[in-house]
């Protein structure tokens, strides 16, 4: 990214620094708040407003003064925002994005972009119709390792790619599921939430694996198999795996929030003459191939808000446009439509009282084995895993608008009506909790 003084002094959205409103400034939103301040120090943006039901206090603002309001639309108007960063509960993403788009405000929308494919299409189509730019907050896709690995694959560095695995073994205590009313829910008051291991905390593993596979658009997905389980007393899954079939091969991602020894999540590219391991949170890559010694490389990363500013001011390529997350949203939809997660039997998990969290003995090895073999838990012999579902052919409901409209119409009508009523009452309001862990 060029220094601020080298940017044009005037842009289609106004003069630099671009005014930014942050919706959802607590939880993960605190990271966005600090990032906005970093870019403010560089002269690229200006924090113009914060949208929260409960205003941030002086300590949370760290001595700064900024306009605050619980009314998102009114705050966008009063601040003249050019960009809105939305880091609010998952079910609010689409409505808030469309409010901003309707006012000509560009977007950085946290992942997952929506709790269902129908809501995703409503958001993406509405944003496109409004003519604004939307960046989806998969920060791992800003890693310079992603294009570097894609180039290695294209050059045949590891031979013919046989498939891509992903592994995430994390830990979350019981308080994690009490942090917000929607936490660990599949639905809340009839509205989809789908806050599971693969769709929220470890969503980056899925999105990054799909990106390395070159299968990021909805039409790239032909079949999806899921195994959704839970050790915690929640609605959603905390121990899961998914296998995605694409024309470029299979992608299998295994995840748990009940790890015995939590570690860094990674994506593994299997080749006929080598493999590439990518620890995506660290931007670290290990290349192992025939005839060469192991090579480890650390890459840089482009911040997604910085990239959005560069796109608006100098025409830089947008890194994570909505359509580039269509394949991920097909996975979210498959998980949404799957049977409710299976509760693990009492002898399959244990409570760690000192950490107030549940662990699944042996799950760390199973997660790694799934990424290594592209197999599902049930195929790896886990006695508690439900037999994997028959592959769901999704090709027919993706490529054309007619199919998308049909999918929208056949979605859960009760949930849609409830969502509409909720939207009517709270379209301009946001909760004080955020959508990411």
Write a short abstract of this structure.
This protein has 437 residues and is an alpha/beta fold. It is built from twelve helices and 22 strands.
What general form does the structure show?
A: globular
What distance lies between the first and last C-alpha atoms, to the nearest angstrom? 28 Å
Rg: 21 Å
Query: Low-confidence runs (pLDDT<50, min 5 residues)?
Result: 1-11, 395-437
Based on secondary structure, the structural category is: alpha/beta
Sum up the structure in keywords.
437 residues; alpha/beta; ten-stranded mixed sheet; six-stranded parallel sheet; 22 strands; 29% helix; disordered N terminus; disordered C terminus
List the topology elements.
Elements: E1 10-11, E2 14-15, E3 18-23, H1 29-41, E4 45-51, H2 58-61, E5 67-69, H3 72-79, E6 83-86, H4 93-102, E7 106-110, H5 117-130, E8 134-137, H6 145-154, E9 161-169, E10 187-188, E11 191-192, H7 203-213, E12 223-230, E13 239-246, E14 249-256, E15 266-271, E16 274-279, E17 284-289, E18 295-298, H8 304-314, H9 326-337, E19 342-343, E20 350-352, E21 357-359, H10 363-373, E22 392-393, H11 401-410, H12 413-426
Parallel strand pairs: 3-4, 3-6, 4-5, 6-7, 7-8, 9-14, 12-19
Antiparallel strand pairs: 1-2, 9-15, 10-11, 12-13, 12-22, 13-14, 15-16, 16-17, 17-18, 20-21
Helix pairs in contact: 4-5, 5-11, 6-7
